Amino acid sequence: MSIAENIARVRANIADACREAGRDPKEITLVGASKMNDAAACREAIAAGIDVLGENRVQEMMAKLADNAYEGAPLHFIGHLQRNKVKQVVGKVALIQSVGSLELLDEIEKVAARMDIVQDILLEVNIGGEEAKSGFAPEKLAEAAGLAQTRSHVRVRGLMTIPPADSDRDTNIQYFNKVRTLYVDINEKLFHNELEYLSMGMSGDYEDAIRSGANMVRVGTAIFGARHYT
Ligand SMILES: *Cc1c(COP(=O)(O)O)cnc(C)c1O
Fold it and tell me: Confidence band (pLDDT; 50, 70, 90) for 229?
């Protein structure tokens, strides 16, 4: 299957999930998670109409940027971002989806201020309470969002989550529903309902995520094929 065929199939599945949920497929932003796929694969996805490309690793993203891999589509950073790499990412991507600590938030603010720009971000929620994963605990989210609002060079556009990889399907759906509730709640209480993105769902669960209210899904394997780790 080509990348274009895979994207068409994912879009059809998204449309089915939307129909079931009484939603319009146009509401859904399809992010191609292109880690470990080369510039040619990125260009193929863009030619096939992917909405956004998302990268995980700063070094890989820089190399592909130099290769014009993303021309014609917005680029998001979706992976774990170390503080010492923030200056390579701010201003280069339309959205940093993975802001999961106050330290990272402050570093982005500092770098964006120096560049005199406003960087759009999502706050990442650690919905499974996993020790090893970044992201705000649900009970810390409102505080983090409130703090972000006092910073003038970052703008919160929504929430992102990655549930624990080992959860069974029902538990996974419960996690999605919890994050959706958090999203609706802080959107109303803190953001005058102006948040735009609820980013959840990957190759194995994007249809469930959409039925639970996601409007942005990050799909890698189902578009680009299996990744070969060496
Ligand atoms: C790799 C990755 C994805 C896509 O994962 P697949 O299971 O290959 O679809 C989505 N989100 C993030 C943050 C990722 O790192």
Answer: confident
Bridge partner residues of 81 (DSSP): none
- Cα–Cα dist 188/183, whole Å: 8
**What pLDDT digit, counting tens, does each position of 78-107 carry?**
999 999 999 999 999 999 999 999 999 999
Tokens 């720009």 -> residue: 117
163 ligand 1 Cβ < 6 A: no
The residue whose CB lies within 8 Å of the most ligand 1 atoms, and thus the one to mutate among 55, 218, 223, is 218
The response to whether residue 35 sits with its C-beta less than 6 Å from ligand 1 reads yes
- Report, as an integer, the average pLDDT of 35-42: 97
Q: What is the pLDDT of residue 230?
A: 63
Which pTM was predicted?
0.98
